[in-house]
Amino acid sequence: MHILRGKFLLTLCSILLGFLSYAQDEEVSFQMNLSKEKLGINERLRVEFTMNKDGDNFSPPPFEGFKVVMGPSQSISSSWINGKRSFSKTYSYILVPTARGRFNIKQATIEIEGEVYKTLPKSVEVTAAVDKPNDQKTVDDVADESLHLVAEVSKGNPYLNEAVTVIYKLYVSPSISVTNYRPLDNPRYNNFWSQEIPVTKHTAQNGTYQGKPYRFVVLKRVVLYPQKPGKLEIEPLSLEIFVDVPTNRRDFFGGRIYTQTSKNVSAGRRTINVKPLPESGKPANFGGAVGDFTFSVNASKAQLNASESLQARVEVSGKGNLKLFQLPEPELPSALEVYDPEFEESVRTYSSGMEGKVANKYTIVPSFRGKYPIPSISFSYFNPKTRKYVTLNSEEINIEVLEGPTRSSDDTNLSGTPNKQVVVQAGKQFHFIKLRPNLTNIGTDYFFGSKTFYWLLFAPLLLIPLTIFSFKKREAIAGDVEGNKIKQANKLAKKYLSTAKKELGNKEAFYVALEKGLHNYLKAKLKIETSEFSKEKITTILTEKGVGEEDVEGFIALLKSCEMARYSPFSNVQMQNDYDKASEVISNLDKNL
Fold this sequence. Notes:
Radius of gyration: 38 Å
Organism: Flagellimonas nanhaiensis
Largest sheet: 5 strands, antiparallel
Number of strands: 30
InterPro entries: BatD (IPR025738)
Transmembrane segments: 453-471
Number of domains: 4
Distance between the termini: 73 Å
CATH architecture of the largest domain: Sandwich
Signal peptide: 1-23
Keywords: Membrane, Signal, Transmembrane, Transmembrane helix
């Protein structure tokens, strides 16, 4: 009995200790650690700020009485031991004193899970110089001082839909060598339309960083088009760099011995202030085009016959956000039959932004003879260099149909020319009527009462059941509203995703076509301006339209896949899954919209 009671007490203590240790593991810790509290003026001081949970908005103290020679460098460690996660994140600084005396290193702050945490201040005494400083640089110190990842932003105050280029450069001191690197965290460009420019070759170039000679390599180029005004944040790019660092040791032959280490580097967050497009002078037909463009409307032929076809091409070319606005539509006479336009795109993205041309090609078939004018249409855009709106007008095009039927006098003539009445020549209004017709005897085989007579008499009665069955069948199909919606939605999905389906297997072209198909669907269904294409705006509008949460999340997930595909490897299976998912999402959205 005493043995059982002892085992029960031992088990209870173990459980309580487990709960206490778990509670302690969950408690937030944010501390400042100093390599020493007393040092000579010719020594170095390492200051580390360590936390056991990831946080944001880290703010270091001012370090009065010291000069920062390195930092902040960031290191992260995460592991699982016995089913429990261990996490540690450290910001490190290397300081050198600027004077003798006692200095107070004040509090650092960080925000973790919505709460602000502060370190305790610590005091440091700086004495006269010592003979043998015992704080020689470590391998990690050398790596920290010799590696810098920098994000260069071309414009800090662009207009809405104006191109912004971000170039990520890795600066490396000549004293070390980089062997490899891997991305830790790729930035998500929220509220931007982004296009990565592939860096095919990493070529080292000579340059300077903070006044010192360095070599640098361009690791990544991204062109961004901001999709809403205000302060927008560009997330940092984080990399793990593997480097060879020289040591003070030498081998048997006198050569310097190198040791390998890895360091985490990050290009700091950047905030740009996006200016809205001015309201003053904005044309009524402005569709969101920003850049410098030319505009033209051309027809493949000016003369043709009825039932022949011609192509009218509406084209915008130049430099700017070519993929992010709608082309103007021509106004054509009703006597001309016009088919849905075919969209053509020839756009390349350079470091300065998109360049090329986009066009809509309309197939037109006239039905009647006559002359038909295609009125002039206008295209407006905003030029960020001149800070003014520009409106371009096309020339009027006249189409002449040479041969074909003439429109009747009851029809409204929209070609601008009056309809001509058909004139009958005098003297031919009445023709001669024969007074003695040549009639022949049909014989004794009368039609009435014959087999053919009865067959033709009862055949319509036999067709009545077939007609009723056919009518019921058509009525059932017409009454199947849900089925008709599904059929129509599937046709719509195939229409907008046809280009993406052709590019299956070609990752970049497939995801560009997929993203464009999704955007074009929203433009057609919701009449959303291109400048409103942020994920938050799309989510809000679809929710207001009564679209289910699952379908909204599926649509946003597809847009994120299109963004991720620009810098991540995607398999053919994943592309096929994204295509099938896009068809399903468009079908579901169309049933709701």
